[in-house]
Amino acid sequence: MSEQTQNPEQEVELNEEISKMQADVEAAVEAADQHAEQEQSPEAEIAMLYAELEAAKQTIADQKDGVVRAAADVDNIRRRAAQDVEKAHKFALEKFANELLPVIDNLERAIEFSDKENETLKPLLEGIDMTVKSFNDAVSKFGVEIVNPQGEMFNPDFHQAMSIQPSNDVTPNTVLAVMQKGYTLNGRLLRPAMVMVSKAADA
């Protein structure tokens, strides 16, 4: 009976082949483990996609909110600018009107204290009266209105009480006389009317 034997060189080669095969198997197992770790379950992938979607929605919402705020700021600036322009148009004549009021006052005083029975003065007084009316018509076109509260209730916003007179004929705080007319410009007071106001007569 013959016995098969291996020489030392063949045995070394065989051991090297076995070692190499074991190394290849271990590398394959390690690669498989790494791949398994990197792979996610469908549920995990869906959860991740939902998270990314919510983050994108939040970004869009933040950007939209910023755009809305910017639009509101622009609208406020535009509205304030329009109001400033409107006020400038309305009250640009305020200084000029204040300079003009004493001229109207003097013309009215000239009529009030003149001798109206003097036939010689009548044409002159008529001319002055027409001039006053022309002045009033001209300034009224630009928003200047006369405050002449004769017989009205006293209003401290537009009237200045120069004296108080007891009276049983009218309700207390009624304007009995206007000493000087007042004026407004587009509803804003230029000059208060100077008035005499009634009070209840002493018993």
Automatic annotation (TrEMBL):
CDD domains attached to this UniProt entry: GrpE (cd00446)
Entry keywords, A to Z: Chaperone, Coiled coil, Cytoplasm, Stress response
Source taxon at top rank: Bacteria
GO cellular component, one term: cytoplasm
Localization per record: Cytoplasm
Gene3D superfamilies in the cross-refs: 3.90.20.20, Head domain of nucleotide exchange factor GrpE (2.30.22.10)
Coiled coil segments of this chain: 11-38
Function according to Swiss-Prot or TrEMBL: Participates actively in the response to hyperosmotic and heat shock by preventing the aggregation of stress-denatured proteins, in association with DnaK and GrpE. It is the nucleotide exchange factor for DnaK and may function as a thermosensor. Unfolded proteins bind initially to DnaJ; upon interaction with the DnaJ-bound protein, DnaK hydrolyzes its bound ATP, resulting in the formation of a stable complex. GrpE releases ADP from DnaK; ATP binding to DnaK triggers the release of the substrate protein, thus completing the reaction cycle.
Family listed: Belongs to the GrpE family.
Complex formation: Homodimer.
NCBIfam families per UniProt: PRK14139.1, PRK14140.1, PRK14150.1
UniProt protein name: Protein GrpE
Organism of provenance: Pseudoalteromonas fuliginea
